[in-house]
Each structure stands twice: as structure tokens, then as C-alpha cells.
Design brief:
With 454 residues, this protein is mainly alpha-helical. 67% of the residues lie in helices and 0% in strands. The longest helix has 32 residues.
Length: 454
């Protein structure tokens, strides 16, 4: 089920909201769990069963930690979630890379016949982090089944994050179980939901439509201006698609008295590649830092560990070598920055921001192209004529407007202006209602969130 669908907004969300506040206090968590499993189960019974098995395995096996040898118990605890991720998401890449024949592939027919479960990378990382935190004695295993299942299934962050740690949700879920009268941030929640939905439809999806204008144009027919325009649309489409989901997730969480973290901190305003990854998909960056980079030795083997981490970043985004190449590219950018930091940091801020944005955007076509096509696309960019062909002034004016919003506004003043800050027009319930109404009028033109496939 998609956040940007009539079924979700007009049926699922109102019904879940009413049921959550209508049931007795002891049933609130199970109401959330039931709604979340329904939300996920719409995509198919097979993926729902796999999801439930992974959750129950993680819940039960962490109690082996402390009784068995730590490496063995931890391996058992993460085995089923990890195997589920590998079999559903990476099996085809493994078989293709190994040049597996029809007989070998037929052995895995079930996993190849099921569509990739939505959000599988997100919930797998959450289950793995829970087991690792228990093993490191950062948290105690929770015997409260409903609370743990609610952590794993809570629908606002289930499909595309943020990637939550159990410690960040445990106490909030306990409040839902123990507080007789809840006080949800309804106005704030609807504001985030409305802004996210509006930006998904009128920025991310329109950028996707504009990028598709060039779909039937052979690479050799592109002009340099067309290619740069296309890169700009792809860059804004990917950013606002994921940003919109994250904003909507925060709003939905607030409707149910759950505070989810900010997953994007204006990453296109970063002055260097290292800063970019502290602002872009923050929860993924911190997850890989804590559970991979530091465990591999951190700065002791900096270049190696950075390349390993970013290869995993690429592989996490997609089971194809173009995604791995995208990740390695970002790893090389981070290493390049470390080597050139004294000179890079002396650049005027506008130049540093423009340089970082340009380098980041140059790799976004790898989300839409294979390695060979991307190589040809990039090579052609440096020899293509500077003429106008596919795109026209209306496209550039729209793209310029998006650039003004992205680089000219500050989210802390028009979105995250919490109580105590000056109120803005975006805080008006009338504005939120208007944005939701307009979005619903055009919702049939909206596309599935890009990150659903991750």
C-alpha cells in the first residue's frame, strides 16, 4: 500500500486512527500491529509470511545471547532476517554473476517468482541492529511481544524508513501502553503529511515526467544541455521522492504519538561529500557507521573501510552492479575530500555547495541506467554539442523553481518550526487542508515511491 494512494488516505488511515483512539489502552499496540500487518500484507501473502517469520525469529532468538557463545548466538539471531534479504533481493544477482544455469535457477524458483518485498532492506537492518545491540549490551531483550512487533511493523516507517533502533522506539511504545489519555500532534502531523504528499506529486513526480521526455532519445542524439537538464530532473526527482516519504512518515507518526527522526537535513546544501552523507538518509549512514565501519576498524584502515561501506550502500540500494558502482563512486568522493580537505575547505561556500551538488548529481543516472549505458551517457556529455533539442524553456523554468526552493529556503523555518519558534503560513490548518485537497485531485498521476524497491 502506498502513502500516495486514495485507499491509504481515504480508508486505511482514517480507520486506523479512529480504531487506535477508540480501543481500550491495553489494545492500542495490537491495533497498530494489526493495521501495520494489513498495510504490508496488501502486497502479497508470501511477503507477509516471510516478514512475520523474520520478526518472530528475531524476537525469540535474541534470548540465546548470554546463554550461548556470543558469535554463535548473534549469528543465529540475524541468520533468518539476513537470509530472507539475500534470497528475495540478491539471489538473482548472485545467480547471474555465477552464470548459473536453468537447473540451478529452477531450484530457487519460489524466490524468483515472488516480487521483491517492499522495504525489505529497511526492516532487515532494523532487526539486525536489534540483535547486535542486545549482543553489545546496549539494550536488554524485550519480553513484551506486542511492543517488539510494533517496533518492527509500525507502518509509517515500514516501507522506506527511517531505519529505527529499538531503543529509539521502546519508550514511546511503552507510553502508548501505559498512558490513559494520549495527546497526539494532529495539526503538526497533518501539516507534515500534506507537505510531503504535495511535494511528492508536484515536485518528485513532475520531475519524473520531465525526465521521461528523453526516454526515447538515443544517447548519441542528446545535446549537452539536454543531458544536464535530464541530470537535474533526476537529481530532484530522487531527492524529493525520498524526502517526501520521510516527511509524510514523520507526520503519520505524530498522529499516533510516535516521534520519528528527521532523515534528511538539507543534503544538497552540503559543502563536501562527507557532509553530504551526514545529511542524506541519516539513519542509513549512522547504521553503517555503527555496525560496519567501526567494527571494521574505522579510521585505522580508512580508505578500505570507506570503500567497503559505500559498496554496501550501493548494494543496499539495488541488487545490480550499477548500484554498487554508484556506492563506490561516493566512497571515492569521500576519500577525495579527505585528501584535498585543506584546499576544499577554503573554497567559498557557494562554490563548495555547487561543486558537491554537481559531483553527487553526476552519479544519479546510475539509478536509471546500466553500467554500459551510463558509460556511454557520460562519455557523450563531454563531446555533445551545446544546443537546444529535447528540453525547452518551460522545463528550465520549472527546474529553476525547484532549485530556488531547494537552495533558497530553510526547512527549519517552514517545516520544523516547533513550538516556541515563529509561526509560518505552513502551520495553518487551512493551508494543510488545501494542500491535501489539491494533492487528492491529482493523486492518480502520482507514482510509487522510488525507495519502495529498496
Amino acid at each position: 500500500m502506498n502513502f500516495n494512494s486514495v485507499e491509504f488516505l481515504a480508508l486505511f488511515l482514517p480507520a486506523t486512527f479512529v480504531a487506535f483512539y477508540a480501543v481500550p489502552m491495553r489494545w492500542r499496540i495490537w491495533t497498530i500491529v494489526t493495521a501495520s500487518l494489513t498495510f504490508y500484507g496488501v502486497s502479497g501473502i508470501e511477503v507477509l509470511v516471510a516478514f512475520v517469520i523474520a520478526i518472530m525469529w528475531s524476537y525469540s532468538t535474541v534470548f540465546l545471547i548470554g546463554r550461548w557463545r556470543k558469535p554463535v548466538a548473534l549469528a543465529v539471531a540475524i541468520s533468518v532476517p539476513a537470509a530472507t534479504l539475500i534470497l528475495f533481493k540478491y539471489l538473482n544477482l548472485i545467480l547471474t554473476t555465477a552464470h548459473a544455469g536453468p537447473e540451478t535457477r529452477s531450484f530457487f524458483w519460489f524466490f524468483q517468482s515472488v516480487l521483491l518485498p517492499a522495504g525489505i532492506s529497511f526492516y532487515t537492518f532494523e532487526l539486525i541492529s536489534y540483535a547486535m545491540d542486545v549482543a553489545d549490551r546496549k539494550i536488554e531483550p524485550d519480553r513484551n511481544l506486542s511492543r517488539f512487533v510494533a517496533f518492527a511493523t509500525f507502518f509509517p516507517h515500514l516501507i522506506a524508513g527511517p531505519i529505527m533502533r529499538y531503543a529509539a522506539l521502546r519508550d514511546q511504545l511503552r507510553v502508548l501502553q501505559e498512558t490513559p489519555v494520549l495527546k497526539p500532534k494532529v495539526a503538526s502531523g497533518l501539516k507534515f503529511l500534506a507537505i510531503g504528499l504535495f511535494c511528492k506529486i508536484f515536485i518528485a513526480d513532475i520531475c519524473g515526467i520531465a525526465a521521461a521526455v528523453a526516454n526515447n532519445t538515443p544517447i548519441e542524439k542528446f545535446t549537452a544541455i539536454d543531458q544536464l537538464t535530464l541530470i537535474g530532473f533526476w537529481s530532484m526527482q530522487i531527492y524529493y521522492d525520498f524526502w517526501s516519504y520521510s516527511i509524510m512518515a514523520i507526520g503519520l507518526g505524530r498522529l499516533f504519538c510516535i516521534e520519528l527522526p528527521q532523515n534528511f537535513r538539507e543534503p544538497y546544501l552540503s559543502e563536501n561529500p562527507r557532509e553530504f552523507w551526514r545529511r542524506w538518509h541519516v539513519t542509513l549512514s549512522y547504521w553503517l557507521r555503527d555496525y560496519v565501519y567501526i567494527r571494521f576498524g574505522g579510521r585505522e584502515h580508512y580508505a578500505r573501510n570507506i570503500l567497503v561501506v559505500f559498496a554496501l550502500v550501493g548494494l543496499w540500494h539495488g541488487a545490480a552492479w550499477n548500484f554498487v558502482a554508484w556506492g563506490v563512486y561516493h566512497g571515492l568522493l569521500v576519500i577525495l575530500y579527505k585528501v584535498t580537505a585543506p584546499a576544499w575547505d577554503r573554497l567559498p561556500r557557494p562554490i563548495a555547495v555547487a561543486l558537491c551538488f554537481g559531483l553527487v548529481s553526476l552519479a544519479w543516472p546510475l539509478f536509471f541506467m546500466g553500467l554500459a549505458d551510463y558509460g556511454a551517457f557520460l562519455a557523450h556529455l563531454f563531446v555533445a554539442p551545446w544546443e537546444v533539442s529535447t528540453y525547452h524553456p518551460t522545463h528550465w523554468l520549472y527546474l529553476a523553481l525547484i532549485f530556488v526552493i531547494t537552495f533558497g529556503l530553510r526547512e527549519q523555518t517552514w517545516i520544523y518550526n516547533e513550538p516556541g519558534r515563529a509561526r509560518r503560513f505552513t502551520d495553518s490548518p487551512a493551508i494543510a487542508a488545501g494542500l491535501l485537497f489539491v494533492s487528492l485531485l491529482f493523486i492518480t498521476f502520482s507514482k510509487t515511491f522510488i525507495y519502495f524497491r529498496f
